Amino acid sequence: MSFTKKRKGALEIPIEDEADLLKITPLGAGQEVGRSCVVIEYKNKTVMLDCGLHPAFDGLSSLPFLDEIDPTSVDVLLVTHFHVDHAAAVPYFLEKTNFSGRTFMTHPTKAIFRWLVTDYVRVSNHGNISEQDALYNEQDMIKAYSKIEVIDYHQQIEVNGIKFTAYNAGHVLGAAMFVIEIAGIRILYTGDYSREEDRHLKAAENPKENIDVMITESTYGVQSFEPRLEKEARFTKLVRDVVLRGGRCLMPVFALGRTQELLLILEEFWENHKELESIPIYFASTLAKRCMLVYQTYIHMMNSNIQKMFATSNPFIFKHISNLNSIAHFDDVGACVMIASPGMLQNGVSRDFFDRWAPDRRNGLVLTGYSVEGTLARTILSEPTEVLTQQGVKISRRMSINYISFSAHVDFTQNSQFIDEISPSNLILVHGEQSAMNRLKAALVSKFTEKEISMNIYTPKNTESVKMYFRGEKMARLMGEMAVEQVPQNKIIEGVLVQRNYKYNLYSSIDLKEFEGISEVPIKQTIKIPYHNTISLLLFHLQSMYGHIETSLKSGEILGDAVKINVFESVDLKYSKNNNEVNINWFSSTLNDMVADSVMALLLNIDCSPVSVKITSQPCGHSHNSAGCHGDNHTVKPNIVTEDESTNFKTENNTVVKDTSVDTELKLDNSSLKSEINLENDQDLKFLESKNVVAYPSYNYSRVSTELLRGELCELLLEHFNIVELSEDKQNINIYHNHGELVSVVINLETLDIINCDDDDTRKRILTLLARFCRTLKPMLG
Predict the structure, then answer these.
(1) Residue partners of 671: CB distance under 8 A and separation at least 6
(2) Please, what is the average pLDDT of the chain?
(3) What is the pLDDT of residue 109?
(4) Which is more confidently placed, 21 or 177?
(5) Phi, psi (5° rounding) for residue 211?
(6) Of 177, 186, 229, 668, which is the most exposed, with the fewest CB atoms less than 10 Å away?
(7) Secondary structure (DSSP) of 759-771
(8) CB–CB of 699/782 below 8 Å?
(9) Which has the minimum average pLDDT: 195-199, 325-329, 613-617, 640-644?
(10) Is 499 within 8 Å of 527 (Cβ atoms)?
(11) Domains of the chain with bracketed CATH
């Protein structure tokens, strides 16, 4: 590290900073599927990603572990899509906690979110759940909805230094993945995503940004899906077989998302098979009927196939599919296809039909999406012979059970390929059951090891934090007059560093107002210290410590009740005899603060100073009978050079002034106490060394920061020499130049000894400066 005088120039300089901790904690979806909620904490910023409910639980137990965080610390809540397990806890978080940050969704997500959550409130609050046990009501949902802001794909928004951008995630209409940037660190959260274009949605896009941390789903672990056309053919055959044997084909689905894909497939299949025209297809969801308007509004966000179809007719107006508004008005006669929500068979219309149709072997159940553990949809996959109805009645299960995945999640092939494209340094797996997640991790480790790709992979549980440290060089831009000229590398320049949203700018003080609107305001420090001794004793100690001092006393003036004193043109003292106190005033700076600290230390230790005791304890030959002397016979006589025994005080210019406070005389014309010691001859030099002014190994060096001592000494030397450098081990100060000639000087910082000096005049100058430096620091060093 080098020190030099302030110069203009350079465009950027590095700023040293401590290692920063990034903490990522899943409050839901950690080694499970459901209640997705991930919290990112970095640089005192907090981002929450998704806030959903667990479909296998009710009430508070279905919430993410929100008690693990302080909601007031969350700056931004970003919701990827409208599904219950990603968004249904948003009204609770916004209205039932003290969260005061901002919430963002895409336009379609917000539009569908309202209807989906309203339906959730209606279904979940129906039955034995009391209003008191309900997480929130419709009014809470309406209030929360008004607080939600929208974001477009590829739009970057910045909130309190947090930048985030939404990208298309496939999966469902309006689903987004987010790239979050905080202090230069980029994090990609995929949410649920699909890399396969289907009948109406585009595939998820690659953000094509340098990603430091990727948080991705692991729903299907190492499973790989069959090709889409083969899957559609198998699906339509299953449905056809059930209805042609006279049965009812039940498909439990989410009201929105993959359901629209299934409707498009069945509509086309029925259109191409005239023998099926007489068999009705029902869609039992009033919610989906309302939300279909949203699908028609956002046709431009779907793939080119749908947009071409929409140019001639609306593809979401179906000929062979009708809406079932009420189960009470359903004529349950003959074969049919029933698409009903919810998808997990926990309650609602789909559960009512399952309880009714399960005992008939002609009927069939086709599960088309992922089934969460703990739900009836997961249980029924094992094909039990008996099941319990919602009323707790045990019934036989004879209907056929089939599973075919139309889930818009990535399989292993798509997921691993996308991770490879992003190539993050750190990968965090969420939204997957423990076994599937661990198998995926093992497969990814094997794959990337073969490719010699270094990647840290984490599989945290709920509330288990992943901690990562990011150490990077921060750069500051030189602005204004400081950017006019080039600054040599490794040279330190002085200026005011301004940080705003993790960007650093360095200004000279005169440019602050123009560029940042900041005015430079000096800070005046004031402190009062009780003082019960004499002015002459105060002046004696100040001059003993600092050499030459300025006072308000004029030639021939008598010491009065108040005296003003200036030390090093930095600190002003005002002694008031009436108040028995000393006021210390100074404008704050590193150097002025150091001088003020030493002055205060001196004042507080005058009473116990050996010199003070010696001055005030000499016996005298006359008596004082005043009350202040308590009748004792004594006098005060300083143990220093005096002119005579009168009560006179002699100033530097040998002018005698009257001191009425004590019977003593002090002569301040002592050459050993001046700030500029005359080192032109060897006698004065030997005097300085005999006083041990330069070397002070016995001082308590630990009282003052070593860095402060080095910095201040270098600053002092810079006032007198052109180039001053600190050695790499920070143990020596090297001075190279003086008066245009090269002079080699080395100073040991441990002892302040001059190790090497080629020029006697330079050595004497440095000794003078070291003496001044030691006198200033002596009160702080013990």
Answers:
(1) 677, 678
(2) 79
(3) 94
(4) 177
(5) -105, 130
(6) 229
(7) -HHHHHHHHHHHH
(8) yes
(9) 640-644
(10) no
(11) 2-13+472-516 (no CATH), 18-223+409-470 (3.60.15.10), 228-403 (3.40.50.10890), 524-672 (no CATH), 677-781 (no CATH)
Name, in order, each residue with C-beta under 8 angstroms of 290's C-beta and a sequence gap of 6 or more. Answer: 115
pLDDT tens-place string over residues 564-578: 889 888 899 988 878
E strand map for 171-267: 176-182, 185-189, 213-217, 248-252
Q: How far is CA 774 from CA 418, 589, 676, 682, in A?
A: 65, 19, 13, 21
**Per-residue 3-state assignment (H helix, E strand, C coil) for 539-597:** HHHHHHHHCCCEECCCCCCCCCCEEEEEECCCEEEEEECCCCEEEEEEECCHHHHHHHH
From CA 509, how far away is CA 506, in angstroms rounded?
Answer: 9
Q: What is the pLDDT of residues 508-560, one digit of tens each?
A: 878 888 888 887 778 899 999 888 887 777 888 888 888 778 887 654 444 55
Q: What is the pLDDT of residue 717?
A: 76
Residue 127: the pLDDT is: 54
**pLDDT tier at 706, thresholds 50, 70, 90:** low
Cα dihedral value 472, 478, 483, 486, nearest 10: -30
Q: Which residues contact 702 (CB under 8 A, 6 or more apart)?
A: none
Reference 766, options 682, 685, 671; nearest CA is 685
Q: Is pTM beyond 0.70 here?
A: no
Q: What is the pLDDT of residue 64?
A: 97
Rounded CA-CA distance 730/721 in Å is 19
DSSP-derived letter for residue 481 is G
| Residues with active-site annotation | 409
Cα distance between residue 617 and residue 317, in whole Å: 110
Say what the alpha-carbon torsion angle 145, 148, 149, 153 is, to the nearest 10 degrees. -90
Task: Give ∠ CA 96-102-106 in degrees, rounded to 5.
Answer: 110
In this structure, are residues 168 and 205 in contact, taking their beta carbons and an 8 Å threshold? Answer: yes
pLDDT tens digit sequence for 73-104: 999 999 999 999 999 999 999 999 999 999 99
Q: How far is CA 156 from CA 213, 358, 504, in A?
A: 19, 51, 21
Q: Residue 646 has which token pair?
A: 């009168």
pLDDT in tens, 726-742: 777 777 777 765 555 56
Is the pLDDT assigned to residue 276 strictly greater than 80?
A: yes
Supply the pLDDT for residue 651. 38
- Whether residue 20 contacts residue 477, with contact meaning beta carbons closer than 8 Å, is answered with no
What distance in Å separates the CA atoms of residue 260 and residue 254, rounded to the nearest whole number? 10
**At 137, is the secondary structure helix, strand, or coil?**
coil
Q: Rounded distance, CA 265 to CA 154, Å?
A: 31
Running DSSP on this structure, what letter comes out for residue 509?
Answer: G
C-beta separation of 202 from 168 below 8 A: yes
Residues 538, 531 contacting (CB under 8 angstroms) = yes
As to burial, measured by CB atoms within 10 angstroms (0-12 exposed, 13-18 middle, 19+ buried), residue 214 is buried
